[in-house]
């Protein structure tokens, strides 16, 4: 809503409202929300991506949850009101009327005059809408653009408080009866002094009132930076964020402006705690979906707030939730720096790829989705980095691929079996695609110090029993030994049919024969996007995303016994914060976890060091002051160089909801020497 009432700003803000109506309409068309009125009000119809559908689903669900709770708690009263601020082309009134929920409630909607006039014209011109509302002919009085018995549509700039108050009075708003205010991504477009004044005015003038807010939060982390930049480019800056950067600040804001009760949760908390499990599952299976990181990041950057005063019984639409014990305590920091001479080298702006050390100081990167020649696409070109005289540089590679589609894959694994041979396992093209099988990558024996200048690719044949091992993505493939023999251990992941897998395969190398080996102990719960490392002949599995799309905090060791293996839990203290989409390395009995996504919205994961002997678990923040761009540490790859105690982060990022795609522009070096000595 306009910060100054200026025409150009109001038009830009209205643009965001129109775009949101189109997105809600698309979500309804795909079955996320049941709302037959959206298509009548939205005008344009466009199909949005599954990530956008989920985002608008959880938004609509949060608003409906609170509105219906208000109507339920006040159903015994003779009269109530709903006042929707910046309502745009929302269908709330028509939905509630159609469901028979407005027996004694009048709905008032306020938006800019031209929006209100457009909506009034739409309603009058459509039988389906006008029949529900019943035109009483009271419009045309000043700012009232439409007037029905239980529906009033007002054209007024919210930032002009005295004008708003006068118009509401003319339209018949009654200060003495319970009133629900709704502000769905509205207050943040106003100057803070004006939105604060509106919040305080509502508390002072309405003895029994509730206030529902849905908007953005957490501007300072990498996703928050991309989100803010998007709205700035639209010239619709988010004003609330600087002064009220988190849920706690928003709660203090309302409690300090006359509201006596206030509960707030981010949308990860709302989705998990307020939506029944069967409904969560329904939504998770509506469309092929594989953008978990961006979905959870979007949800941690939006909140729903319910404030009230004078309500008997008190209005608390959310059950109290047990939040994680405050922010994650940090034991120190790790400096991040861009690698000299690597800036601007094309080919490493990508995510969902895999980078692996194929010999000392030579890193091969394959697959993923990224940027090539200014276009976003699945990356089919291999990329080699080589370290010479202390500096990393890119090396040109010739690829011999009989079928170009083999190279285009995301979320695969690459295991280096010798200095001339590596194995690619699994991966996907689209989320509905079947697994892509396995490939051999062959490097010439005479490969020079700077790395291979020629890589040939061949299809790897797997026995029928092992085919399923390569028909997955977001899995792990780890080198291990059993009775002195070398194996690859393929574990977890997901497939086109199964949203999460918990099975495993032992493949004897190099011929990849499928081998049955006995495994005892409690089986870890199914997961994908976890990490896996070789350690003492066995495999360490950490974190991941579980069956209900919830991050996991467990660490398991698959340990060699005389006749097979045993799953053992590694207890960490303090407990490891659940996470997924991180990378991991082992160094001298320490498990290092790099980045990832967790539900702790107060910070983003940096580097976590777990002592595998004592279980001590310490978190370190990554110091990014020397980087000129947001460092997104999910869907990245990392390579650990033990001699230098240096970790190279390659790629990472993703599709940031509707705010654009962010790809880390260049590799970043993390110096771990201080934390590995201190630990």
From TrEMBL:
Coiled-coil ranges per UniProt: none
GO MF terms, alphabetically ordered: tRNA methyltransferase activity
Name by which UniProt lists this protein: tRNA wybutosine-synthesizing protein 4
Family to which the UniProt record says this protein belongs: Belongs to the methyltransferase superfamily. LCMT family.
Catalytic activity of the protein: 7-[(3S)-3-amino-3-carboxypropyl]wyosine(37) in tRNA(Phe) + S-adenosyl-L-methionine = 7-[(3S)-(3-amino-3-methoxycarbonyl)propyl]wyosine(37) in tRNA(Phe) + S-adenosyl-L-homocysteine; 7-[(3S)-(3-amino-3-methoxycarbonyl)propyl]wyosine(37) in tRNA(Phe) + S-adenosyl-L-methionine + CO2 = wybutosine(37) in tRNA(Phe) + S-adenosyl-L-homocysteine + 2 H(+)
GO terms under biological process: tRNA methylation; wybutosine biosynthetic process
Pathway annotation from the record: tRNA modification; wybutosine-tRNA(Phe) biosynthesis
Role played: Probable S-adenosyl-L-methionine-dependent methyltransferase that acts as a component of the wybutosine biosynthesis pathway. Wybutosine is a hyper modified guanosine with a tricyclic base found at the 3'-position adjacent to the anticodon of eukaryotic phenylalanine tRNA. May methylate the carboxyl group of leucine residues to form alpha-leucine ester residues.
Keywords tagged on the record: Methyltransferase, S-adenosyl-L-methionine, Transferase, tRNA processing
Natural source organism: Cinclus mexicanus
């Amino acid at each position: 809503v306009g910060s100054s009432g200026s025409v150009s700003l109001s038009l830009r803000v209205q643009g965001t409202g129109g775009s949101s109506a189109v997105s809600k309409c698309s979500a309804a068309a795909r079955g996320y929300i049941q709302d037959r009125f959206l298509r009548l009000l939205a005008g344009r119809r466009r199909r949005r991506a599954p990530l956008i559908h989920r985002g608008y689903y959880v938004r609509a669900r949060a608003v409906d949850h609170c509105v219906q709770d208000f109507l339920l708690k006040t159903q015994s009263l003779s009269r109530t009101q709903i006042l929707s601020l910046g309502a745009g082309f929302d269908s709330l009134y028509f939905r509630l009327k159609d469901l028979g929920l407005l027996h004694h409630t009048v709905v008032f909607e306020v938006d800019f005059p031209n929006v209100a006039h457009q909506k009034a014209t739409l309603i009058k011109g459509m039988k389906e809408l006008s029949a529900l509302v019943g035109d009483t002919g009271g419009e045309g009085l000043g700012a009232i653009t439409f007037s029905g018995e239980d529906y009033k549509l007002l054209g007024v700039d919210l930032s002009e408080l005295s004008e708003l108050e006068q118009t509401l009075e003319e339209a018949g708003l009654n200060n003495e009866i319970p009133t629900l205010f709704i502000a769905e991504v509205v207050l943040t477009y106003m100057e803070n002094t004006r939105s604060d004044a509106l919040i305080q005015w509502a508390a002072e003038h309405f003895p029994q009132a509730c206030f529902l807010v849905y908007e953005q939060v957490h501007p300072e982390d990498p996703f928050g930076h991309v989100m803010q930049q998007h709205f700035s480019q639209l010239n619709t800056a988010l004003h609330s964020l600087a002064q009220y950067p988190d849920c706690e600040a928003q709660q203090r804001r309302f409690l300090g402006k006359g509201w006596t009760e206030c509960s707030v949760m981010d949308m990860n908390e709302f989705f998990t705690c307020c939506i029944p499990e069967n409904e969560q599952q329904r939504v998770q299976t509506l469309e092929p979906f594989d953008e978990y990181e961006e979905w959870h990041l979007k949800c941690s950057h939006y909140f729903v707030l319910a404030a009230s005063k004078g309500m008997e019984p008190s209005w608390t639409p959310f059950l109290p939730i047990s939040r994680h014990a405050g922010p994650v305590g940090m034991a120190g920091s790790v400096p991040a720096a861009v690698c000299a001479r690597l800036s601007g080298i094309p080919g490493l702006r990508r995510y969902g790829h895999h980078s692996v050390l194929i010999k000392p100081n030579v890193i091969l990167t394959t697959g993923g989705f990224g940027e090539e020649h200014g276009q976003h696409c699945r990356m089919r070109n291999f990329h080699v980095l080589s370290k010479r005289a202390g500096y990393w540089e890119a090396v040109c590679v010739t690829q011999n691929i009989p079928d170009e589609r083999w190279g285009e894959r995301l979320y695969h694994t690459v295991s280096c079996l010798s200095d001339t041979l590596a194995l690619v396992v699994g991966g996907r093209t689209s989320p509905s695609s079947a697994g892509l099988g396995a490939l051999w990558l062959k490097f010439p024996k005479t490969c020079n110090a700077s790395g291979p200048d020629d890589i040939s690719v061949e299809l790897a044949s797997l026995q029928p029993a092992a085919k399923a091992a390569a028909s997955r993505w977001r899995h792990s493939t780890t080198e291990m030994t059993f009775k002195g023999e070398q194996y690859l251990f393929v574990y977890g992941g997901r497939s086109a049919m199964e949203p999460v897998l918990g099975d495993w395969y032992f493949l004897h190398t190099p011929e990849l024969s499928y081998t049955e080996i006995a495994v005892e102990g409690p089986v870890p719960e199914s997961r994908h996007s976890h990490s896996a490392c070789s350690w003492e002949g066995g495999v360490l599995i950490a974190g991941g995303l579980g069956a209900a799309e919830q991050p996991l905090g467990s660490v398991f060791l698959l340990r060699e016994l005389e006749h097979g293996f045993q799953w053992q839990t590694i207890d960490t203290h303090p407990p490891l914060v659940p996470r997924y989409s991180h990378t991991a390395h082992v160094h001298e009995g320490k498990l290092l976890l790099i980045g990832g996504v967790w539900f702790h919205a107060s910070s983003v994961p940096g580097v976590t060091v777990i002592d595998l002997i004592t279980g001590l678990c310490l978190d370190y923040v990554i110091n990014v002051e020397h980087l000129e761009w947001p460092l997104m540490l999910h869907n990245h790859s990392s390579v650990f160089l033990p001699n230098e105690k240096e970790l190279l982060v390659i790629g990472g990022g993703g599709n940031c909801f509707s705010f654009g795609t962010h790809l880390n522009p260049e590799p970043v070096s993390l110096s771990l020497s201080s934390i590995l000595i201190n630990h």
